[in-house]
Design brief:
The complex is a heterodimer of chains A (115) and B (110). In chain A, strands 2, 4, 5, 6, 9, 10 and 11 form a 7-stranded mixed beta sheet that branches. A 4-stranded antiparallel beta sheet of chain A has the order 1-3-8-7, with no helix packed on it. Chain A contains no helices and 11 strands. Chain A is globular and about 40 Å long. By secondary structure, chain A is mostly beta strands. Helix content of chain A is 0%, strand content 49%. In chain A, a hairpin with a 5-residue loop joins strand 4 and strand 5 (43-51). Chain B is an all-beta fold and 110 residues long. Chain B contains no helices and 11 strands. Chain B has strands at residues 5-7, 10-14, 19-24, 31-37, 43-50, 55-58, 61-66, 71-76, 85-92, 98-100, 104-109. In chain B, the strands form 2 sheets. In chain B, strands 2, 4, 5, 9, 10 and 11 form a 6-stranded mixed beta sheet that branches. In chain B, strands 1-3-8-7-6 form a 5-stranded antiparallel beta sheet, with no helix packed on it. The radius of gyration of chain B is 13 Å and the shape is globular. The relative contact order of chain B is 0.36. Classes of the chains: A mainly beta (115), B mainly beta (110). The interface between A and B is medium-sized, with 29 and 28 residues.
Chain lengths: 115, 110
Amino acid sequence: DGGITQSPKYLFRKEGQNVTLSCEQNLNHDAMYWYRQDPGQGLRLIYYSQIVNDFQKGDIAEGYSVSREKKESFPLTVTSAQKNPTAFYLCASRVWTSGYTGELFFGEGSRLTVL
Amino acid sequence: SQQGEEDPQALSIQEGENATMNCSYKTSINNLQWYRQNSGRGLVHLILIRSNEREKHSGRLRVTLDTSKKSSSLLITASRAADTASYFCATDGGAQKLVFGQGTRLTINP
């Protein structure tokens, strides 16, 4: 079955540590996205990538880094510079469409807790 | 920046009743989309309405779009317990990304 796989589902981190969240898709989608969701809140865009080896900052990129070395993979690193990293992280992908943004397909999320 | 703002923030109704949620946005859009999120899960796409459309249906869902008022509504008819979830609107402002609102938490009481 095609879809987006995020791992790990739950992650605990000590302050000062970097952690990497995995996002893999087998939908052959060109564009991939990382969103952050805080309790009772909407989604805020961290980074997005439209093609391999290229990515753009979203609204809250500070303290995060990404790479896009393969079409199917878009890992997110939460660095120690991120002041309040405890949150629910969602990865999404979509078919590339020129001129508009179509439907996003989401993974099941990764919940990061800083101890 | 969060362009879409949903109203109400929370809604509780009886099973079988209709549920209406509203979304307002600030700038011009290519399209507006609605998503559902069950607790602790990822989002699921429900429906997309383009800026030149005024109404769209999908099963028990009806979406309207008023670009002059920069607003949209999602109507769920004959609600079921399984409709309990958070619902988000998302706008495509033309930058190859979606901007999500804060969401409406819908509870369907049996």
